UniProtKB/TrEMBL annotation:
Signal peptide: none annotated. Residues 455-596 form the Protease Do-like PDZ domain. Residues 103-113 have a biased composition (Polar residues). Residues 34-113 are annotated as: Disordered. Keywords: Hydrolase, Protease, Serine protease. InterPro entries: DEGP_PDZ, DEGP_PDZ_sf, PDZ_sf, Peptidase_S1_PA, Peptidase_S1_PA_chymotrypsin, Peptidase_S1C. CDD domains: cpPDZ_Deg_HtrA-like. This is DEGP protease 2 isoform 1. Residues 34-44 have a biased composition (Low complexity). Pfam families: PDZ_3 (PF17815), Trypsin_2 (PF13365). It comes from Theobroma cacao (Cacao). GO terms for molecular function: serine-type endopeptidase activity. GO terms for biological process: proteolysis.
Length: 633
């Protein structure tokens, strides 16, 4: 069985097991990390929402301990990882997460940093790196810099603390106005970022201005005037054509000086971005991309930058498949930042679609021509929920006809996935859809916004929320927490909700009891863990901030927590409050709640009855899980 490995130029061990499928896939990002007894718990390369969500597999689970996990580098393994995971590395040395439950035959990895304290030459170095040669004096090479990042990731299992820091290296390039571009995974959870120019021996401190997780791009700034002396920023070029020559420049594994590799453009299509949660346009090339290349530019023959190197695909059946973020995605990122003063992200339509390749299916839906995609589900939090209905057939998007395979015309003689058109829009933009409803054609307008994830791929602000009540530790379910805990300890019910449930309203979270800090006040509950709490004193819980508010306002004699499967945990309120400070001291925890929960609670939903039915539980059917004709847009 072929094992597919995709790197994101960040060297990290990672593996993913496809949910409900027999083939194991690996994803990698392209940076290279150096660590000294560092805890290398996953920097997650997340797949998109349509067909490729994956969860890492863990062969065993170890008991939780109240100290920072350590990774003995000499053993070249990550804590809690399976044997499969050891074969998959970020190019910057950070462990990545994959996707689950998607019928997809490819695996990607992002590279960007290389570990300095271990020999990484066992990675696949079959590709030949080209010496700069006649490019030696090219001025555009001087715009490519090396990135040194110190990462301090949160500990999602023990959310009041962080993991041990580690370092990584990657690449970046100058774009003018005192700014640099690199990959988001190169500077994820950064505590310090430094950059060094070619031929210089001085490292300069850089600041992260914006980080686009979904498109894997980050914008950096360097204040030092000395750093910019004599610098010439790169020019962004147009989307290349097939077979166009391409040159990848960066600071990958194998040395400290700049490296140049050459190839051609092999394919341009909508690609799964390993680090983010989106499917965006990507350029496939055959030039070598190795750990440390992440964030480095790819040039055309005119010396124009045509994209950013960020991930590769490796398997026993394929070679020389690297991926570049095209300048169309880069320009969207920069325009978004300039418009809003921050990065807001790519929008979505908020529907689950089915292809209409079958003639009988089209006839049943009164679609006269070979076109259109069927609306199977509409996300409750999207604007489309007010406009579209299940059973509608989308036949055009801004007057561009949508084919029955879910594709639209692209350039002169190509077709591309329908969601490419959506990715050209910005959050808040309006799209005009041509639809067929009950045999009647009509046009409707839909506002495009960012997708609301019930279980987020990345935590805004970096540190997860938590609430400790008499030793009961509550936290929102997130993909990083699932990655850290492993699927065996999370349980199938929570996994199914994480993969296939939709948020009913903005701000909704799945709040779980992650563990119980043993004390006489909570005796009998010590073995509880990773269970969703549904109600507190009979009131349904909307999110962890809502739970903290309910507990703070409670005047009842008992604190009653209702969990899945009608499991109850009851505490005497005064005894619980009296024991809380002692429990925090015994376990060395600085506060009973995270800083974000100190803010006043605002009930955005208002009517609690609106969520009584099917609260937080709208799983996709088995058909939707396994049927390739379905796609998110």
């Amino acid at each position: 069985m072929a094992i597919a490995v995709a790197h994101c130029c960040f060297s990290v061990l990672s593996s993913t097991v496809k949910f409900r499928y027999s083939v194991s896939y690996h994803r990698r990002l392209a940076t290279s990390t150096s660590t000294s007894q560092a805890s290398l718990d996953a920097l997650s390369p997340k797949a998109t929402n349509d067909k490729k969500r994956a969860l890492k597999s863990c062969s065993s689970t170890s008991p939780r301990k109240f100290n920072v996990k350590k990774d003995p580098v000499s053993q070249k393994k990550l804590p809690g990882r399976s044997k499969d995971e050891k074969s998959s590395l970020y190019a910057d040395g950070i462990s990545g997460r994959g996707d689950m439950g998607r019928p997809q035959s490819t695996g990607f990895k992002s590279f960007g940093t290389q570990r300095k304290d271990r020999e990484e030459f066992q990675l696949d170095l079959r590709e030949q790196q080209v010496e700069p040669g006649n490019l030696q004096d090219a001025t555009f090479l001087n715009a490519v810099v090396k990135v040194y990042c110190t990462h301090t990731a949160p500990d999602y299992s023990l959310p009041w603390q962080k993991q041990r820091q580690f370092t990584s290296t990657g690449s970046a390039f100058m774009i003018g106005d005192g700014k640099l571009l690199t990959n988001a995974h190169c500077v994820e959870h950064d505590t310090q970022v430094k950059v060094k120019r070619r031929g210089d021996d001085t490292k300069y401190v850089a600041k992260v201005l914006a980080r686009g997780v979904d498109c894997d791009i980050a914008l950096l700034s360097v204040e030092s005037k000395e750093f910019w002396r004599g610098a010439e920023p790169l020019r962004l070029g147009h989307l290349p054509g097939l077979q166009d020559a391409v040159t990848v420049v960066g600071y990958p594994l194998g040395g400290d000086t700049i490296s140049v590799t050459k190839g051609v453009v092999s394919r341009i299509e909508v690609t799964s971005y390993a680090h983010g949660s989106s499917d965006l346009l990507g350029i496939q090339i055959d030039a070598a991309i190795n750990p440390g290349n992440s964030g480095g530019p790819a040039f055309n023959e005119q010396g124009e930058c045509i994209g950013v190197a960020f991930q590769v695909y490796r398997s026993e059946e394929a070679e020389n498949i690297g991926y570049v973020i095209p300048t169309t995605v880069v320009s969207h990122f920069l325009s978004d930042y300039e418009r809003n003063g921050k990065y807001t992200g790519f929008p979505c339509l908020g529907v689950l679609l089915q292809k209409l390749e079958n003639p009988a299916l089209r006839a049943c839906l009164h679609v006269q021509s070979n076109e259109g995609v069927l609306v199977r589900r509409v996300e409750p939090t999207s604007d489309a929920n007010n406009v579209l209905k299940e059973g509608d057939v989308i036949v055009s998007f801004d007057d561009v006809h949508v084919g029955s395979e879910g594709t639209v015309p692209f350039r002169s003689n190509e077709r591309i996935a329908f969601r490419y058109l959506i990715s050209q829009k910005f959050a808040g933009d309006v799209a005009e859809l041509g639809i067929v409803r009950a045999g009647r054609f009509m046009k409707v307008q839909v506002v495009l916004n960012r997708r609301v994830h019930l279980v987020p791929y990345h935590i805004d602000g970096g540190q997860p929320s938590y609430l400790i009540i008499a030793g009961l530790v509550f936290t929102p379910l997130s993909e990083p927490l699932i990655e850290e805990e492993c699927e065996d300890s999370i349980g199938l019910k929570l996994l199914a909700k994480a993969r296939y449930s939709l948020a009913r309203f903005k701000g909704e979270q799945i709040v779980i009891l992650s563990q119980v800090l043993a004390n006489e006040v909570n005796i009998g509950y010590e073995d509880m863990g990773n269970q969703q709490v549904l109600k507190f004193n009979g009131i349904r819980i909307k999110n962890i901030h809502h739970l903290a508010h309910l507990v703070a306002c409670c005047k009842d004699k008992y604190l009653v927590f209702e969990f899945e499967d009608n499991y109850l945990a009851v505490l005497e309120r005064e005894a619980a409050m009296a024991a809380s400070s002692r429990i925090l001291k015994d376990y060395g925890i600085p506060s009973e709640k995270s800083d974000d929960l100190l803010e006043p609670y605002v009930d955005s939903l208002g009517d609690n009855q609106a969520i009584e039915q099917d609260y937080g539980d709208s799983p996709v059917s088995n058909l939707e899980i396994g049927f390739e004709g379905l796609l998110w847009a």
